[in-house]
Protein backbone atom coordinates (compact mmCIF):
# COMPACT_ATOMS: atom_id res chain seq x y z
CA UNK A 1 0.00 0.00 0.00
CA UNK A 2 1.04 3.57 -0.63
CA UNK A 3 1.41 6.56 1.66
CA UNK A 4 -2.32 7.26 1.28
CA UNK A 5 -4.92 4.49 1.18
CA UNK A 6 -7.99 5.52 -0.80
CA UNK A 7 -11.16 3.49 -1.20
CA UNK A 8 -14.95 3.72 -1.11
CA UNK A 9 -16.77 1.70 1.53
CA UNK A 10 -20.55 1.73 1.71
CA UNK A 11 -20.73 5.03 -0.21
CA UNK A 12 -18.20 6.67 2.10
CA UNK A 13 -14.93 7.86 0.56
CA UNK A 14 -12.13 6.74 2.89
CA UNK A 15 -8.73 8.46 3.19
CA UNK A 16 -6.17 6.84 5.48
CA UNK A 17 -2.79 8.51 5.90
CA UNK A 18 -0.39 5.59 5.81
CA UNK A 19 3.07 6.56 7.06
CA UNK A 20 2.83 5.38 10.68
CA UNK A 21 6.62 5.36 11.19
CA UNK A 22 6.67 9.14 10.62
CA UNK A 23 3.35 9.62 12.41
CA UNK A 24 1.72 10.03 8.99
CA UNK A 25 3.64 13.20 8.13
CA UNK A 26 2.39 14.68 4.87
CA UNK A 27 4.50 14.63 1.72
CA UNK A 28 3.79 16.51 -1.53
CA UNK A 29 2.66 13.29 -3.15
CA UNK A 30 0.16 12.61 -0.38
CA UNK A 31 -1.31 16.10 -0.70
CA UNK A 32 -1.80 15.61 -4.44
CA UNK A 33 -3.41 12.19 -3.99
CA UNK A 34 -5.88 13.52 -1.43
CA UNK A 35 -6.77 16.52 -3.57
CA UNK A 36 -7.37 14.33 -6.62
CA UNK A 37 -9.55 11.92 -4.65
CA UNK A 38 -11.67 14.76 -3.26
CA UNK A 39 -12.13 16.16 -6.76
CA UNK A 40 -13.27 12.77 -8.07
CA UNK A 41 -15.62 12.03 -5.16
CA UNK A 42 -17.20 15.49 -5.27
CA UNK A 43 -18.73 14.60 -8.64
CA UNK A 44 -19.50 10.97 -7.84
CA UNK A 45 -23.15 10.46 -6.88
CA UNK A 46 -22.22 7.07 -5.41
CA UNK A 47 -20.14 8.81 -2.71
CA UNK A 48 -22.13 10.82 -0.15
CA UNK A 49 -19.24 11.86 2.13
CA UNK A 50 -15.55 11.52 3.00
CA UNK A 51 -13.75 10.29 6.12
CA UNK A 52 -10.05 10.82 6.91
CA UNK A 53 -8.05 8.98 9.57
CA UNK A 54 -4.48 7.86 10.21
CA UNK A 55 -2.78 4.47 10.21
CA UNK A 56 -1.13 3.19 13.38
CA UNK A 57 -1.86 3.86 17.03
CA UNK A 58 -0.14 7.20 17.51
CA UNK A 59 -2.32 9.70 15.72
CA UNK A 60 -3.81 11.20 12.59
CA UNK A 61 -0.84 13.27 11.43
CA UNK A 62 2.17 15.00 13.01
CA UNK A 63 2.30 17.67 10.28
CA UNK A 64 4.19 18.18 7.05
CA UNK A 65 7.41 16.30 6.31
CA UNK A 66 9.73 19.20 7.17
CA UNK A 67 13.01 17.40 6.50
CA UNK A 68 12.64 18.25 2.81
CA UNK A 69 12.03 21.91 3.68
CA UNK A 70 15.25 21.89 5.73
CA UNK A 71 17.24 20.52 2.81
CA UNK A 72 15.85 23.10 0.40
CA UNK A 73 16.20 26.02 2.81
CA UNK A 74 19.79 25.04 3.65
CA UNK A 75 20.72 25.12 -0.03
CA UNK A 76 19.10 28.53 -0.44
CA UNK A 77 21.39 29.97 2.23
CA UNK A 78 24.50 28.48 0.65
CA UNK A 79 23.97 29.18 -3.04
CA UNK A 80 23.78 32.23 -5.25
CA UNK A 81 20.49 34.02 -5.87
CA UNK A 82 19.77 32.35 -9.23
CA UNK A 83 20.20 28.88 -7.77
CA UNK A 84 18.24 29.89 -4.69
CA UNK A 85 15.14 30.62 -6.72
CA UNK A 86 15.23 27.09 -8.10
CA UNK A 87 15.72 25.63 -4.62
CA UNK A 88 12.72 27.53 -3.26
CA UNK A 89 10.37 25.95 -5.78
CA UNK A 90 10.04 22.72 -3.79
CA UNK A 91 8.74 24.13 -0.48
CA UNK A 92 6.74 26.87 -2.21
CA UNK A 93 5.01 24.34 -4.45
CA UNK A 94 4.29 22.09 -1.48
CA UNK A 95 2.77 24.94 0.55
CA UNK A 96 0.73 26.14 -2.42
CA UNK A 97 -0.74 22.69 -3.02
CA UNK A 98 -1.25 22.02 0.69
CA UNK A 99 -3.09 25.32 1.25
CA UNK A 100 -5.27 24.69 -1.80
CA UNK A 101 -6.16 21.32 -0.27
CA UNK A 102 -7.01 22.97 3.07
CA UNK A 103 -9.33 25.38 1.27
CA UNK A 104 -10.90 22.58 -0.75
CA UNK A 105 -11.70 20.71 2.46
CA UNK A 106 -13.37 23.78 3.97
CA UNK A 107 -15.46 24.30 0.84
CA UNK A 108 -16.21 20.62 0.21
CA UNK A 109 -19.79 20.08 -0.98
CA UNK A 110 -20.24 16.82 0.92
CA UNK A 111 -19.71 15.87 4.57
CA UNK A 112 -15.99 15.73 5.37
CA UNK A 113 -15.41 13.78 8.57
CA UNK A 114 -12.07 13.84 10.38
CA UNK A 115 -11.04 11.39 13.09
CA UNK A 116 -8.60 13.48 15.16
CA UNK A 117 -7.45 10.70 17.46
CA UNK A 118 -3.95 10.86 18.96
CA UNK A 119 -1.40 13.37 17.65
CA UNK A 120 -2.78 16.04 15.31
CA UNK A 121 -0.19 18.74 14.69
CA UNK A 122 0.42 21.41 12.05
CA UNK A 123 -0.46 19.94 8.67
CA UNK A 124 -2.60 17.38 10.47
CA UNK A 125 -4.82 20.24 11.60
CA UNK A 126 -4.93 21.41 7.99
CA UNK A 127 -6.49 18.16 6.75
CA UNK A 128 -8.91 17.87 9.68
CA UNK A 129 -9.67 21.19 11.34
CA UNK A 130 -11.48 22.64 8.31
CA UNK A 131 -13.81 19.66 7.93
CA UNK A 132 -17.54 19.69 8.60
CA UNK A 133 -17.51 16.90 11.23
CA UNK A 134 -14.39 16.91 13.44
CA UNK A 135 -14.08 14.20 16.09
CA UNK A 136 -11.59 14.11 18.98
CA UNK A 137 -11.01 11.55 21.73
CA UNK A 138 -9.42 11.32 25.17
CA UNK A 139 -6.13 10.58 23.37
CA UNK A 140 -6.19 13.65 21.12
CA UNK A 141 -3.25 16.04 21.30
CA UNK A 142 -3.86 18.94 18.94
CA UNK A 143 -1.52 21.84 18.30
CA UNK A 144 0.26 24.29 16.06
CA UNK A 145 3.92 24.09 17.17
CA UNK A 146 5.46 26.09 14.33
CA UNK A 147 7.01 28.93 16.37
CA UNK A 148 9.30 26.28 17.83
CA UNK A 149 10.93 25.71 14.42
CA UNK A 150 11.12 29.31 13.21
CA UNK A 151 7.85 29.21 11.26
CA UNK A 152 4.25 30.34 11.80
CA UNK A 153 0.95 28.49 12.32
CA UNK A 154 -0.13 27.86 8.73
CA UNK A 155 -2.55 25.50 6.89
CA UNK A 156 -5.32 27.86 8.02
CA UNK A 157 -4.03 27.89 11.58
CA UNK A 158 -4.19 31.67 11.76
CA UNK A 159 -7.88 31.46 10.82
CA UNK A 160 -8.73 28.95 13.54
CA UNK A 161 -6.51 30.44 16.25
CA UNK A 162 -7.62 34.03 15.68
CA UNK A 163 -11.26 33.01 16.08
CA UNK A 164 -10.82 31.07 19.32
CA UNK A 165 -12.51 32.52 22.44
CA UNK A 166 -10.71 35.50 23.95
CA UNK A 167 -6.94 35.20 23.65
CA UNK A 168 -6.78 31.41 23.89
CA UNK A 169 -5.63 31.16 20.27
CA UNK A 170 -2.83 33.65 20.86
CA UNK A 171 -1.68 31.63 23.86
CA UNK A 172 -1.81 28.36 21.94
CA UNK A 173 0.12 29.84 19.01
CA UNK A 174 2.89 31.64 20.91
CA UNK A 175 3.60 28.81 23.36
CA UNK A 176 2.94 25.92 20.93
CA UNK A 177 0.49 24.61 23.53
CA UNK A 178 -0.79 21.06 23.18
CA UNK A 179 -4.57 20.97 23.31
CA UNK A 180 -6.58 18.12 24.74
CA UNK A 181 -9.68 16.96 22.89
CA UNK A 182 -11.79 19.09 25.23
CA UNK A 183 -9.55 22.12 24.61
CA UNK A 184 -9.75 21.57 20.85
CA UNK A 185 -13.54 21.65 20.96
CA UNK A 186 -13.56 24.78 23.09
CA UNK A 187 -11.12 26.60 20.79
CA UNK A 188 -13.08 25.66 17.66
CA UNK A 189 -10.70 23.06 16.23
CA UNK A 190 -13.15 20.18 16.70
CA UNK A 191 -16.85 19.45 17.17
CA UNK A 192 -17.48 16.12 18.92
CA UNK A 193 -15.89 13.99 21.64
CA UNK A 194 -15.91 10.20 21.25
CA UNK A 195 -13.98 7.76 23.40
CA UNK A 196 -11.29 6.02 21.34
CA UNK A 197 -12.63 2.54 22.14
CA UNK A 198 -15.87 3.48 20.37
CA UNK A 199 -14.25 4.72 17.15
CA UNK A 200 -14.59 1.47 15.17
CA UNK A 201 -18.34 1.34 15.77
CA UNK A 202 -18.66 5.07 15.11
CA UNK A 203 -16.89 4.74 11.75
CA UNK A 204 -19.11 1.81 10.80
CA UNK A 205 -22.21 3.82 11.70
CA UNK A 206 -21.00 6.90 9.82
CA UNK A 207 -21.49 5.07 6.55
CA UNK A 208 -25.23 5.15 7.16
CA UNK A 209 -25.75 8.58 8.70
CA UNK A 210 -23.23 10.98 10.29
CA UNK A 211 -25.94 12.70 12.32
CA UNK A 212 -27.22 9.46 13.81
CA UNK A 213 -23.71 8.12 14.39
CA UNK A 214 -22.57 11.23 16.24
CA UNK A 215 -25.78 11.29 18.25
CA UNK A 216 -25.23 7.69 19.34
CA UNK A 217 -21.48 7.67 20.05
CA UNK A 218 -20.47 11.21 20.99
CA UNK A 219 -20.61 12.36 24.58
CA UNK A 220 -20.09 15.51 26.62
CA UNK A 221 -16.35 16.27 26.71
CA UNK A 222 -14.51 16.88 29.97
CA UNK A 223 -14.01 20.48 31.01
CA UNK A 224 -11.41 22.39 29.02
CA UNK A 225 -8.49 23.36 31.24
CA UNK A 226 -7.61 26.29 29.02
CA UNK A 227 -11.17 27.62 29.24
CA UNK A 228 -10.75 27.77 33.01
CA UNK A 229 -7.49 29.71 32.66
CA UNK A 230 -8.87 32.60 30.65
CA UNK A 231 -8.81 34.70 33.81
CA UNK A 232 -5.06 35.22 33.29
CA UNK A 233 -4.67 34.29 29.61
CA UNK A 234 -6.94 37.02 28.24
CA UNK A 235 -5.37 39.99 30.07
CA UNK A 236 -1.83 38.77 29.40
CA UNK A 237 -2.18 38.03 25.69
CA UNK A 238 -4.29 41.08 24.82
CA UNK A 239 -1.08 43.17 24.74
CA UNK A 240 0.08 44.67 21.45
CA UNK A 241 3.62 43.30 21.51
CA UNK A 242 5.25 39.99 22.34
CA UNK A 243 7.55 41.77 24.79
CA UNK A 244 4.57 43.09 26.73
CA UNK A 245 2.85 39.69 26.63
CA UNK A 246 5.96 38.07 28.11
CA UNK A 247 6.16 40.75 30.80
CA UNK A 248 2.53 40.31 31.78
CA UNK A 249 2.95 36.53 31.95
CA UNK A 250 6.03 36.78 34.17
CA UNK A 251 4.31 39.21 36.54
CA UNK A 252 0.84 37.63 36.44
CA UNK A 253 1.19 35.99 39.84
CA UNK A 254 0.09 32.73 38.23
CA UNK A 255 2.41 29.73 38.16
CA UNK A 256 0.86 28.74 34.83
CA UNK A 257 1.51 32.24 33.50
CA UNK A 258 5.16 32.10 34.48
CA UNK A 259 5.46 28.67 32.87
CA UNK A 260 3.86 30.06 29.69
CA UNK A 261 6.40 32.90 29.63
CA UNK A 262 9.23 30.36 29.83
CA UNK A 263 7.74 28.35 26.96
CA UNK A 264 7.18 31.46 24.86
CA UNK A 265 10.67 32.87 25.37
CA UNK A 266 12.24 29.59 24.21
CA UNK A 267 10.69 30.00 20.76
CA UNK A 268 12.08 31.89 17.75
CA UNK A 269 11.84 35.63 18.52
CA UNK A 270 11.28 36.40 14.85
CA UNK A 271 8.55 33.79 14.53
CA UNK A 272 6.84 35.05 17.67
CA UNK A 273 6.61 38.58 16.34
CA UNK A 274 5.55 37.47 12.87
CA UNK A 275 2.95 35.11 14.32
CA UNK A 276 1.41 37.76 16.58
CA UNK A 277 1.06 40.14 13.64
CA UNK A 278 -0.40 37.34 11.50
CA UNK A 279 -2.98 36.45 14.15
CA UNK A 280 -4.04 40.07 14.66
CA UNK A 281 -4.33 40.51 10.89
CA UNK A 282 -6.18 37.22 10.34
CA UNK A 283 -8.78 38.16 12.93
CA UNK A 284 -10.16 40.92 10.70
CA UNK A 285 -9.88 39.09 7.39
CA UNK A 286 -13.06 37.85 5.74
CA UNK A 287 -12.42 34.12 5.70
CA UNK A 288 -10.11 31.14 5.38
CA UNK A 289 -9.03 31.99 1.83
CA UNK A 290 -7.64 35.38 2.83
CA UNK A 291 -5.88 33.83 5.82
CA UNK A 292 -4.24 31.19 3.64
CA UNK A 293 -3.11 33.91 1.23
CA UNK A 294 -1.53 35.71 4.17
CA UNK A 295 0.15 32.55 5.45
CA UNK A 296 1.58 31.82 2.02
CA UNK A 297 3.25 35.24 1.84
CA UNK A 298 4.79 34.74 5.28
CA UNK A 299 5.85 31.15 4.60
CA UNK A 300 7.69 32.15 1.43
CA UNK A 301 9.50 34.92 3.31
CA UNK A 302 10.47 32.71 6.26
CA UNK A 303 11.93 30.15 3.87
CA UNK A 304 15.00 32.36 3.46
CA UNK A 305 15.57 33.01 7.16
CA UNK A 306 18.14 31.57 9.54
CA UNK A 307 15.59 30.50 12.15
CA UNK A 308 13.61 28.09 9.96
CA UNK A 309 16.71 26.10 9.05
CA UNK A 310 18.00 26.23 12.61
CA UNK A 311 14.66 25.31 14.15
CA UNK A 312 14.24 22.21 11.98
CA UNK A 313 17.87 21.24 12.60
CA UNK A 314 17.41 21.32 16.35
CA UNK A 315 14.06 19.53 16.25
CA UNK A 316 14.53 16.69 13.77
CA UNK A 317 18.01 16.69 12.22
CA UNK A 318 20.40 16.79 15.16
CA UNK A 319 17.58 16.51 17.70
CA UNK A 320 19.53 18.46 20.31
CA UNK A 321 16.46 20.61 21.14
CA UNK A 322 18.80 23.58 21.47
CA UNK A 323 18.11 26.01 18.60
CA UNK A 324 20.37 29.05 18.33
CA UNK A 325 18.03 31.77 17.14
CA UNK A 326 19.25 34.86 15.31
CA UNK A 327 18.34 37.38 16.58
CA UNK A 328 18.02 35.59 19.91
CA UNK A 329 16.16 38.33 21.80
CA UNK A 330 12.75 39.83 21.09
CA UNK A 331 14.16 43.36 21.43
CA UNK A 332 16.61 42.69 18.60
CA UNK A 333 13.95 41.78 16.01
CA UNK A 334 13.47 44.95 13.99
CA UNK A 335 10.10 45.98 12.60
CA UNK A 336 11.31 45.99 8.99
CA UNK A 337 12.21 42.29 9.10
CA UNK A 338 8.71 41.49 10.38
CA UNK A 339 6.96 43.68 7.81
CA UNK A 340 8.99 42.09 5.04
CA UNK A 341 7.27 38.78 5.72
CA UNK A 342 3.89 40.24 4.76
CA UNK A 343 4.95 41.79 1.45
CA UNK A 344 2.70 41.21 -1.57
CA UNK A 345 4.03 38.48 -3.90
CA UNK A 346 2.61 39.84 -7.15
CA UNK A 347 2.15 37.10 -9.73
CA UNK A 348 3.21 34.49 -7.14
CA UNK A 349 0.25 35.21 -4.84
CA UNK A 350 -1.77 32.18 -3.78
CA UNK A 351 -4.90 34.11 -4.70
CA UNK A 352 -7.56 32.15 -2.82
CA UNK A 353 -9.37 35.30 -1.68
CA UNK A 354 -10.46 36.06 -5.25
CA UNK A 355 -11.48 32.53 -6.25
UniProtKB/TrEMBL annotation:
- List the record's Gene Ontology CC terms alphabetically: cytosol
What species is given as this protein's source?
Allokutzneria albata
Enzyme class per UniProt: hydrolase
Question: Which InterPro entries does the protein's record reference?
Answer: ClpP/crotonase-like_dom_sf, ECH_dom, HIBYL-CoA-H
Reaction catalyzed: 3-hydroxy-2-methylpropanoyl-CoA + H2O = 3-hydroxy-2-methylpropanoate + CoA + H(+)
- Entry annotated with the keyword Hydrolase: yes
Q: Where's the Enoyl-CoA hydratase/isomerase domain?
A: 13-342
Q: From the Swiss-Prot or TrEMBL record, give the protein name.
A: 3-hydroxyisobutyryl-CoA hydrolase
What keyword terms does UniProt attach to this protein? Hydrolase
Q: What EC number(s) is this enzyme filed under?
A: 3.1.2.4
Q: Identify the Pfam families for this entry.
A: ECH_2
Name the Gene Ontology molecular function terms of this record. Answer: 3-hydroxyisobutyryl-CoA hydrolase activity
Gene Ontology biological process: L-valine catabolic process
